[in-house]
Amino acid sequence: MDPEPTPSPELIVEFKTLSEQELVKFLPVEKKDPEHLTPQEKGALDELWRRHYRELKENLRAKTFSLRPHEEPDKEHFLHMCINEAYPAFLRRTRQDEYKNFGGFLFKLALNVGLDVRRQLTKKRADKRSETEKKKKPPVEMISVDDLTETLVDEGKEALQIVAARELREIVRQVLEEHAGESPISALSTRVVRQKYINELSWEQIARNLFPEEDSERATRDIIKAIKTLEEPDIRAILRLLAYRQITNAEAFEV
Amino acid sequence: MSQEFGPLTTKQKRLLRILTRGLKTLKPEDLSPRTPCPDSWTLASYVSGDLNQEAQQAVNAHIAFCDTCFDEYAALIGQDKLWQLLQGERTLVGDIAEARFQKSMGWKKTVANFVRQKGQEVAKVLEVAVGGNTYSVALSLEGGALSCSVAALRTPLKSALRITVGSGTGKELISTRSDESGNSRFVVPSAAGDMRVLTLDLQGIMHQISFRIPQKP
């Protein structure tokens, strides 16, 4: 059953006759917890919910396919969970200001609710998994805080070289972070760099991480080709960011 | 794509080889997220384009280093949009080609952000530092004319910018002033293949961007 609101009869009579602009005047100015809403605010919100419920449901339905995690095999059940979450979220989030672009607000609310439900489902699964793992795992070997791994890795290097190498690793990190911050596509390409060089994934694995086979009909070779086209602009951008830090010579990395 | 990028110089190639080697020496913790994961409302606002630029950059940087958040972002936009993002970038790179960079005059960075919008053929957004101020310069083609929109990003120095656009031969085509905050928008008649030089002048500190109007995409 969808949670269609059932406000008290007197509120239906009062708010049903009002235009949307008149209803908006009753909405809270600031975001409020639902339990702190006044009867007028609650009544206006319920009436707006009733009027826009179909639109919100359609927004949620449209996002169900991509947002539903593998942990939830039933699409309709996932949609139903989202709708259940949507009503309290609507009460909590809706305020006068949002009415300026109410369609956009409802879309964003659908994304927010869908993501919250997805997080609940994936977290439950992860918690369950970690509990099982805890039971199965042998006792964890305690490692001293004076772990010598770093020292062993740096063995044979001069102190200055160690410091320089660490500083350069930090610079590379900063440059990648700055590049990633420029746009979603830069974020995507930085992720590819990370997976390629740090996680040492193959192009095929990177492609399939991005477009999992069970969800996508796209050919792996097409995905790889598309990903590889990011490389050239990436190189230019990273070289430019390094140049901005006065690193224009390979010797800077030779420590 | 080839019109966008000239060949790498030997020096750059060498730097690149070393950089690649340097990347391999990074440890997983060097590339783990350093900011907390955005809450679901922030991520939803990011996808629907409701975040301010600073917050947007923070989320961009976070999802690059956090697999969980990237997966959530991908789930929010859906596979078709993700594919469009990849494809769009590939087909649009080079539509407005930068002819050269003038590092000495204060280039900070170029935001490789190409978008196709309703009513516009292509657009390129650059982030430009002039003195201590930073501006966003959006160049787009609209019905055979070049539309230029300058918007202030960070402007500790509140002063109007003098903006001129010249042809490749140095002839001044338009000269205008931004408002005190640094915002301005104007249109310059331009044809495919024309060379244009955009100059931003902040109290005598000049910054030039040269570019060629692309052929029809």
Write the layout of secondary structure elements.
The complex is a heterodimer of chains A (255) and B (217).
Chain A: H1 9-16, H2 20-24, H3 39-67, H4 75-93, H5 102-136, H6 149-153, H7 159-181, H8 184-198, H9 203-210, H10 220-228, H11 231-244
Helix pairs in contact in A: 1-3, 3-4, 3-5, 4-5, 7-8, 7-11, 9-10
Chain B: H1 10-25, H2 40-47, H3 53-65, H4 67-92, E1 97-100, E2 109-115, E3 123-130, E4 133-142, E5 145-154, E6 162-167, E7 172-177, E8 184-189, E9 195-202, E10 205-212
Antiparallel strand pairs in B: 1-10, 2-3, 3-4, 4-5, 5-8, 6-7, 6-9, 9-10
Helix pairs in contact in B: 3-4
> What would the average pLDDT of chain A be, to the nearest integer?
79
Q: For this entry, what is the oligomeric state of its chains?
A: heterodimer
Name of the CATH class of the largest domain in chain B: Mainly Beta
User: Order of SSEs of chain A, N→C?
Assistant: HHHHHHHHHHH
Q: Order of strands side by side in the largest beta sheet of chain B?
A: 1-10-9-6-7
- Strand count of chain A: 0
What does it look like?
The complex is a heterodimer of chains A (255) and B (217). Chain A is mainly α and 255 residues long. Chain A folds into 2 domains: 9-133, no CATH class; 149-253. In chain A, 67% of the residues lie in helices and 0% in strands. Chain A has helices spanning 9-16, 20-24, 39-67, 75-93, 102-136, 149-153, 159-181, 184-198, 203-210, 220-228, 231-244. In chain A, α3 runs antiparallel to α4 (75-93), α7 packs antiparallel against α8 and α9 (203-210) packs across α10 (220-228). The longest helix of chain A has 35 residues, at 102-136. In chain A, 30% of the residues are buried. With 217 residues, chain B is an alpha+beta fold. Chain B has 2 domains: 32-92, no CATH class; 97-212, Immunoglobulin-like (Sandwich), CATH 2.60.40. Chain B is 29% helix and 34% strand. Chain B has helices spanning 10-25, 40-47, 53-65, 67-92, and strands at residues 97-100, 109-115, 123-130, 133-142, 145-154, 162-167, 172-177, 184-189, 195-202, 205-212. In chain B, α3 packs across α4. Chain B is globular. Mean pLDDT of chain B is 73; it is low at 1-5 and 89-120. At the A-B interface, α3, α5, α7, α8 and α10 of A face α1, α2, α3, α4 and β2 of B.
